[in-house]
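pls design
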């Protein structure tokens, strides 16, 4: 073999090695942030995983706003929105609107939350806003979920909601249920359920595929739960070994880790990159 041939083979082998290494490293597009008084200054190196998108759970919760310019009670401290806007992991932002920590209260008071959300849209922080997220979560056990449809019509687009499947009816049934009432221009963030051991990552991928087949892939994104049950009804961060199969399973979908400030530490990022 000529010298040029040996060199070409060596370069090809090197390319395949690098490519294999890239494929083995997890990639995730987004990070979620559930704002509360203890977590108003998110800091992280999530961009090392490929994160460019930020999902903010809400900008007001339980009648307390984390922005100025509304009639709601203002939080004691507000996030440094200018600093957050400059972070590499916040290049594209879905801004969460008004929510409640208690799910039943959120569903029962959805109309009031829409009214608050309209104020929050006007007072939105100076971020790279790609769309809006209405944080009243839905699942098929909510018998009055259809009542949400006309309320969603009042909110700006692009608009997203989140959905989970507590009763494990399956991806196709979940997709059909959503398709029967959800406005066709509202996107879905599917909570994978892996963090609470509701299902394995590959099953969650099957759910996402079923949702995409019915709703259209552009309307489907995935929330990968970056936590696991801990002692005394608490939650802990998932380990790299636990989290990697989730990220691998959802390749091809815009995926958000829930959530960064609580569960995805610099140490976990480092371990995921090994």
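designed seq:
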């Amino acid at each position: 073999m000529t010298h040029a041939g040996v060199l070409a083979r060596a370069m090809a082998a090197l390319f395949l090695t690098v490519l294999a290494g890239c494929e083995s490293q997890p990639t995730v597009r987004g990070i979620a942030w559930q704002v509360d008084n203890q977590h108003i200054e998110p800091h992280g190196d999530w961009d090392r995983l490929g994160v460019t998108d930020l999902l903010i759970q809400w900008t007001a919760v339980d009648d307390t706003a984390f922005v100025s310019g509304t009639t709601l009670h203002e939080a004691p401290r507000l996030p440094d929105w200018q600093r957050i806007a400059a972070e590499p992991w916040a290049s594209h932002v879905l801004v969460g609107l008004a929510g409640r920590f208690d799910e039943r209260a959120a569903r029962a008071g959805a109309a009031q939350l829409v009214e608050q959300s309209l104020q929050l849209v006007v007072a939105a922080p100076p971020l790279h806003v790609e769309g809006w997220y209405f944080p009243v979560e839905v699942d098929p056990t909510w018998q009055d979920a259809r009542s949400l449809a006309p309320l969603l019509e009042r909110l700006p687009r692009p608009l997203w909601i989140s959905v989970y499947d507590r009763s494990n009816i399956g991806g196709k049934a979940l997709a059909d249920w959503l398709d029967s009432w959800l406005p066709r221009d509202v996107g879905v963030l599917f909570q994978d359920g892996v963090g609470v051991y509701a299902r394995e990552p590959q099953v969650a991928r099957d759910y996402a595929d079923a949702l995409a087949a019915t709703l259209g892939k552009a309307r489907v994104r995935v929330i990968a739960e970056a936590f696991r049950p801990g002692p005394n009804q608490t939650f802990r961060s998932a380990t790299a070994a636990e989290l990697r199969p989730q990220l691998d399973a959802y390749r091809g979908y815009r995926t958000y880790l829930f959530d960064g400030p609580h569960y995805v530490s610099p140490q976990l990022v480092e371990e995921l990159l090994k």
